[in-house]
Amino acid sequence: MFLELNTPWLRKNAKRNPADDVYAVLTAAFFASSGNTSLIRARSSSNAFLNAFRGSDDVGVDVFIAFVNVIFILLCVVIFFAFLLPCGVETTGDRVCGVIIGARTHVVVIVVVAVVSCARRRDGVPIVCFASRLLRDKGVYDFVAAARLLQKRGIEARFWLVGDADTKNPTGLTATELQSLRDGDVVEVLGYKKDIPALYAKAHIICLPSFYGEGIPKALIEAAAASRAVVTTDHPGCREAVVPNKSGLLVPVKSPEKLADALQWLIEHPADRLAMGKAGRLLAEREFAIEKIVQGHLEIYRELLERVA
User: Fold this and answer.
1) What is the domain partition of the chain in residue ranges?
2) Are 280 and 229 in contact (CB under 8 A)?
3) CB neighbours of residue 199 within 10 Å
4) What CA–CA distance (Å, rounded) separates 71 from 107?
5) How many CB atoms within 10 Å of residue 187?
6) Mind listing the pLDDT tens digit for each residue in 183-231?
């Protein structure tokens, strides 16, 4: 039997600090997951705790570590679906931490899975996302200026600038201007992204400080559908995509300081931000369902046809 408890050793070493054993188990588990069993044996050969489970055959260590890994992963999955998803997290990528602890008597290994930061992102830093064509009239430089103000205020956040340059538009950013933003340390220029749902799933706040001649910006409709709080301008088209102070915040056009104030408030109030995102989802279902949009277009066409007749 290659897995046998070395009880004389356990009695002799019952008062040892388990920290060394924890380190050994974690290290062995790491290498086991990467398939490097030779390193497992090298690490475990100097640790009596692992040797107690190994007995006379090295394969015991491999089996033991594999067992620990399987149990740990299964518990993470169970905790994630049982507790993390129902608690109202903003994304499905929130942090689940696993800690493997050696018992004081060294007879058992307890696997403890702790759910940390239920309503926060894995890295703990809120992400503000601007997703649109990169036009001055869309508020690109207002977004950058607001991000710079927040950095000066010591507000910890990441600012994503997402979109393609529109060189045919007179207000489009030039290649030189775009490169200047890339070289700076204020915003992260991610370029064109096709999968907007995946993008918004990683973000916390959607920002569009536009003063462009908008209809209703698709970016704001998608933000509402993705349950994301919105900061946009009190401008025709933009204001129609938000229930003020319910699903998002409105700020004056061309006002980076007011924009920064609104973003800061949402960054510092995650519970309100989450509530706004949920309200946005209800708004999208109520006002922007595809069936309602199609019906509205059909009614316009019908009215026009009646006028012609």
Assistant:
1) 7-115, 127-296
2) yes
3) 19
4) 17
5) 20
6) 999 999 999 999 999 999 999 999 999 999 888 999 999 999 999 999 9
Give, in order, the Cα–Cα distances in Å from 281 to each of 17, 27, 86, 224, 268.
Answer: 52, 44, 17, 5, 21
State how far the Cα of 146 lies from the Cα of 189, in Å rounded to an integer: 15
Q: Is residue 142 a contact partner of residue 254, using CB atoms and an 8 Å limit?
A: yes
- Per the CB < 8 A criterion, the answer to whether 106 and 10 are in contact is yes
The total of other beta-carbon atoms located within 10 Å of residue 101's CB is 16
Across the range 298-308, mean pLDDT stands at 92
Q: Name the residue with tokens 């800690």.
A: 99
Architecture of the domain whose range is 127-296: 3-Layer(aba) Sandwich (3.40)
Grouping H, G, I as helix, E, B as strand and the rest as coil, residue 206 is strand
In 3D space, the residue among 281, 269, 274, 263 whose CA is nearest the CA of residue 227 turns out to be: 281
